[in-house]
């Protein structure tokens, strides 16, 4: 089996898309090159943001036989899972404090993706978390001022569509726009719709001593999709983004307003990315839901998206010099065309000027 085949099966097992390991994987686990192969899978899973998920899958393999793993590798993999759990608990405490603090000042807090999406995973604590994204129903500036005055927390304002502050080591992005409406004209359509949907509080959830708001399935579909599409066209995405989308659809597909979703995707030029994403969701991850929307499959786009995620990483870092940016742009051109119905050169100039603008602010 190849590294990618092993990773894929462990991911399927860890996400509970599959419950039983294949005979092929069990046979491979008995081979002499098992430890070296698993080390490669572990390293690949780190790049793809799914080490804990693959470790969960590995436990289902171990349950089928007396398999052993290199002690050092087992330690590294286990401590990675433990670290993910500690970050989850730290974010839970930060959410509890922040929601309670805002509530004392008459401000409700909506949580975007991240911690809220983790509930779709078989083991929520094993969905890797980074920063926390929040929205305060139009009271971002007021809330930042109160946070600074009452708690002495420094708020960074030189960001594109949100401010940033740190709470006990957790980075929080306080959104005043859901997507950057200045970088791409088509983002304005998404931002307007997300604000409209966001104002409709869908559900509330207790987190420790605080209460957070969670958005509707239609909001999440639009936000997750556009966020992922922008990252793909820019810095790139990994398979954790695909897993988020797949598990969300497995649970919520029937509650999404797909007419609205597809209308926006068509207006903004996202349909090619949509086709590729849905192809991977169904035919690679293996999500099966009778309420999934119909989509036209394009195997060439699926292959391109998967290759960009798993193989091509030369231009993942933001380029500094003009020549480096031009070289990176040539690589990104085909990705940009999958996401935006905008002039590619104009996109390059606009995003470049924005990058320079925020660099000067720093």
Draw up the topology in text.
Layout (H helix, E strand, L loop, with lengths): L2 H12 L8 H6 L5 H14 L3 H12 L8 H34 L5 E3 L19 E4 L4 H12 L10 E6 L2 E6 L9 H14 L4 E5 L2 E5 L2 H17 L5 H14 L5 H11 L2 H15 L13 H12 L11 H18 L4 H18 L1
Parallel strand pairs: 2-4
Antiparallel strand pairs: 1-2, 3-4, 5-6
Helix pairs in contact: 1-3, 1-4, 7-8, 8-9, 8-13, 9-11, 11-12
Account of the protein in words:
- With 362 residues, this protein is of the alpha+beta class.
- The chain is built from 14 helices and six strands.
- The protein has helices at 3-14, 23-28, 34-47, 51-62, 71-104, 140-151, 185-198, 217-233, 239-252, 258-268, 271-285, 299-310, 322-339, 344-361; strands spanning 110-112, 132-135, 162-167, 170-175, 203-207, 210-214.
- The strands form two sheets. The protein has a four-stranded mixed β-sheet with strand order 1-2-4-3. The chain has a two-stranded antiparallel sheet with strand order 5-6.
- Strand 5 (203-207) and strand 6 (210-214) form a beta hairpin.
- Helix 1 packs across helix 3 (34-47), helix 8 (217-233) runs antiparallel to helix 9 and helix 9 (239-252) crosses helix 11.
- The chain is globular, with a radius of gyration of 21 Å.
- Residues 313-319 have low confidence and may be disordered.
């Amino acid at each position: 089996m190849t590294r990618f085949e092993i990773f894929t099966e462990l991911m399927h097992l860890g996400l509970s898309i599959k419950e039983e390991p294949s005979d092929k994987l069990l046979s491979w686990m008995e081979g002499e090159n098992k430890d070296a192969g698993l080390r490669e899978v572990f390293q690949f899973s780190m790049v793809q943001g799914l080490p804990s998920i693959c470790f969960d899958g590995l436990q289902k393999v171990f349950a089928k036989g007396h398999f052993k793993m290199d002690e050092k590798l087992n330690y590294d993999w286990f401590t990675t899972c433990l670290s993910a759990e500690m970050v989850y608990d730290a974010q839970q405490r930060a959410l509890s404090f922040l929601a309670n603090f805002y509530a004392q000042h008459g401000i409700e807090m909506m949580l975007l993706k991240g911690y809220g999406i983790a509930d779709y995973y078989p083991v929520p604590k094993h969905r890797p978390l980074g920063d926390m994204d929040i929205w305060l129903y139009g009271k971002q500036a007021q809330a930042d001022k109160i946070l600074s005055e009452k708690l002495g927390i420094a708020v960074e304002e030189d960001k594109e569509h949100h401010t940033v502050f740190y709470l006990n080591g957790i980075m929080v992005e306080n959104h005043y726009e859901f997507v950057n409406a200045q970088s791409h004209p088509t983002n304005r359509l998404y931002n307007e719709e997300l604000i409209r949907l966001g104002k409709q509080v869908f559900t509330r959830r207790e987190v420790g001593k605080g209460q957070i708001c969670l958005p509707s399935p239609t909001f999440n579909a639009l936000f997750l999709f556009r966020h992922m599409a922008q990252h793909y066209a820019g810095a790139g995405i990994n398979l954790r983004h695909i897993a988020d989308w797949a598990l969300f659809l497995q649970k919520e597909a029937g509650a999404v307003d797909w007419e609205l979703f597809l209308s926006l995707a068509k207006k903004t030029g996202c349909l090619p990315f949509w086709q590729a994403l849905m192809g991977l969701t169904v035919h690679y991850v293996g999500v099966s839901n009778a309420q999934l929307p119909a989509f036209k499959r394009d195997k060439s786009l699926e292959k391109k998206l998967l290759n960009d995620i798993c193989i091509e990483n030369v231009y993942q870092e933001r380029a500094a010099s003009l020549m480096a940016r031009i070289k990176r742009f040539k690589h990104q051109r085909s990705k940009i065309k999958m996401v935006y119905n905008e002039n590619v050169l104009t996109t390059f100039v606009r995003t470049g000027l924005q990058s320079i603008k925020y660099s000067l602010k720093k």
